């Protein structure tokens, strides 16, 4: 009789362990899904920031802003000095 009670207790403990493990597995899977969605959002934002950086770094845009905002102009060809190394 005592052996039967021990076996029943072990079976119940095992069943509870299975239930807890399944629950924990589902919670971890949900967390992984949430983190993957966040990673996708960060990847998309990174791509947009790279495009924005490329746009801001274009030579023609910088030259246009230098002319408009700072009043800068290219020097005349004859006033440019070239120095040999």
Automatic annotation (TrEMBL):
Keyword list, A-Z: Cell cycle, Cell division, Cell inner membrane, Cell membrane, Coiled coil, Membrane, Transmembrane, Transmembrane helix
Subcellular location: Cell inner membrane; Cell membrane
Main location per the UniProt record: membrane
Membrane topology recorded in Swiss-Prot or TrEMBL: Single-pass type II membrane protein
Record GO cellular component, one term: plasma membrane
Coiled-coil zones: 25-52
Pfam families (alphabetical): FtsL
GO process annotations (BP): FtsZ-dependent cytokinesis
Family of the protein in this entry: Belongs to the FtsL family.
Function: Essential cell division protein. May link together the upstream cell division proteins, which are predominantly cytoplasmic, with the downstream cell division proteins, which are predominantly periplasmic.
The protein's assembly and partners: Part of a complex composed of FtsB, FtsL and FtsQ.
HAMAP family, A to Z: FtsL
Name of this chain's protein: Cell division protein FtsL
Originating organism: Methylomagnum ishizawai
């Amino acid at each position: 009789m005592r052996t039967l009670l021990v076996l029943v207790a072990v079976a119940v403990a095992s069943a509870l362990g299975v239930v807890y493990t399944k629950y924990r597995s589902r919670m971890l899977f949900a967390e992984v899904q949430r983190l993957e969605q966040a990673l996708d959002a960060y990847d998309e934002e990174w791509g947009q920031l790279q495009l924005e950086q490329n746009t801001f770094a274009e030579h023609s845009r910088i030259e246009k802003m230098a002319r408009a905002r700072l009043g800068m102009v290219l020097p005349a060809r004859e006033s440019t000095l070239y120095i040999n190394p």
